[in-house]
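pls design
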């Protein structure tokens, strides 16, 4: 079986290989993988869909809850427990360039106020509330209408809206934005956004949706740092919450991870 598309596809002369497709077709392809891309990505550019062969590796409907905080605490709090990611979704000897699909639903920050919520991926099982290991995706809430969904290499430091990739800029700009605004999707501490991540080594495509809809609100292509691929230690999912001047919550639910082992 294929553990890693980059390592397990054996190219021969002229970087060629013979592919057998699920519909019975057999094809020859010569593929050069450029710097910054992956074999899976290059196959998809040629019209192949390796995603159809992904198996469900984890399904967790219960998810995680992050402890509630007082208003204006402006400090990150991490969920008491974490979800261990399955083999094949973090870097190890068999999977040096992990490839997987992760879907989940995540609650937002308070109505028209400050507050942030983040899901940490490839984090350690035990860490501080200001943990910056791995990468983070979620809501960055400031005064309306600048409520933003984004993805980041690290969270802002507790009590500060001005540092880190998760930081708010006075110019109203953020890094790696999937979506900004309240319309058509107005989230709060009791409403949810649906996320889908396609991870191909260091290449990530992140998309967000209204729950119950297959129409994307927004999407962004993003590149992980090498140390964000996970490891035998950094192989967990956790949720984080930072409460500002409105009620904020971080409820992670309906987590599904598909991939190859």
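designed seq:
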């Amino acid at each position: 079986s294929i553990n890693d598309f980059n390592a397990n596809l054996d190219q021969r002369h002229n970087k060629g290989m013979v592919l057998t497709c699920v519909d019975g077709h057999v094809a020859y392809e010569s593929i050069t993988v450029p710097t910054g891309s992956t074999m899976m990505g290059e196959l998809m550019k040629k019209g192949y869909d390796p995603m159809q062969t992904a198996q469900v590796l984890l399904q967790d409907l219960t998810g995680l809850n992050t402890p509630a905080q007082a208003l204006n605490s402006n400090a990150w709090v991490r969920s008491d427990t974490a979800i261990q990611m399955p083999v094949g979704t973090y870097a190890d000897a068999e999977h040096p360039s992990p490839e997987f699909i992760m879907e989940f639903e995540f609650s937002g920050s308070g109505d028209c106020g400050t507050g942030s919520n983040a899901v940490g991926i490839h984090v350690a099982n035990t860490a501080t509330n200001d943990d910056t290991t791995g990468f983070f995706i979620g809501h960055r809430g400031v005064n309306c209408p600048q409520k933003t969904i984004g993805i980041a290499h690290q969270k802002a430091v507790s009590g500060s809206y001005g540092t880190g990739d998760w930081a708010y800029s006075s110019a109203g700009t953020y890094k790696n934005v999937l979506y900004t605004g309240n319309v058509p999707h107005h989230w709060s501490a009791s409403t949810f956004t649906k996320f889908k991540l396609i991870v191909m080594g260091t290449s990530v495509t992140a998309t967000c949706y209204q729950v119950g809809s297959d129409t994307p609100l927004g999407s962004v292509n993003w590149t992980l740092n090498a140390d964000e691929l996970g490891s035998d230690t950094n192989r967990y999912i956790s949720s984080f919450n930072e409460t500002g001047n409105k009620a904020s919550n971080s409820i992670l639910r309906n987590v599904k991870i598909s991939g190859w082992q």
